[in-house]
């Protein structure tokens, strides 16, 4: 009885390992920060049990204010210190199938939870894309077409390609032995095909601007948000915009984000005669993003592949913008019936979706309201944290490291 009372009083010690973390910027970094913060916030609610959250990363601090975080941070630990930290934990949550923490935690007989943010267990390059063209891969590794996998990454050199191929087997073998594999979408679960899988949708901050009102910019504005890389499909969006201009449709397209393809996309914009309609706003942090999106009717995400959730789609829905996304895969799952979809790479179909949004304010307002309602019920930070806490609490009590 005393031991049961102690288990109820003592917090569950959760160690989250993320190879990349703030001040670096990216999807994984954002979600680990959001999860750790939301888990720490659960301790201030009336939920049974508490969580002692600690984040470990290989990312240097570089002036970031770790003391302001509601959880403890450990940066760049030695291998020995990492092992000690793992030994003291009850739950080891690994953001992505990182080999070192998984191996050490399993050797220490810890409960290991792996949250998958990519395709590292089914694709040597982790993106499920065929190199060098960056086209969507049909799943060569899982089909056993390993020679094609090796050729896919030969641009890095044969030795590097062979190493990536071998590491994919190792990650898959280890993930088959952890306590739980978490994916942000059911679609990703069907792709990974690992044991003991559960889906927990990512959470995004709530939007305090109320319901969409139709207070939009003139001419009507559409936005794209994301890194300017081939897989995001911005060239498709520009071709769709050119079709709209040819039809005499008035619009503004705001490209929010930066990346290696920016110069080429700006050149394509000029070649298509869209210099007056398209503006490249670059990366917009914090409050500046709100200004960049002021008056925007909808967000277009013409991704060609590589998405495991679609954080931008969920954030846009929470802001009250209608999402227009590529059909199939994770993006379509996130949007559900609260947005418009089109076949990946189909500029004509995307142009039709854009025209419908631009020329029908009533349709756009009703769609934006549905999108915001869906996001506020399905993609909240509190729900995400609560479902993770339920996963941790369902695991058997861990005795290692306890007094």
Question: In words, what does this structure look like?
Answer:
The chain is built from 15 helices and 15 strands. The longest helix has 18 residues, at 158-175. The relative contact order is 0.12. Helix content is 41%, strand content 17%. It has 403 residues and is an alpha/beta fold.
Question: What would the keywords be for this entry?
Answer:
single chain, 403 residues, alpha/beta, Rossmann fold, seven-stranded parallel β-sheet, six-stranded parallel β-sheet, 15 strands, 17% strand, disordered N terminus
Integer tally of domains:
2
* Top CATH class of the largest domain: Alpha Beta
- Summed up, the helix count is 15
Main beta sheet: 7 strands, parallel
Helix-strand pattern: HEHEEHEHEEEHHEHEEHEHEHEHEHEHHH
What's the alpha carbon Rg, rounded to whole Å? 22 Å
Weakly predicted, low-confidence segments: 1-7, 399-403
Strand proportion, as a percent range, falls in: 15-25%
* Number of separate strands: 15
What is shown here, in short?
The protein is an alpha/beta fold and 403 residues long. The chain is 41% helix and 17% strand.
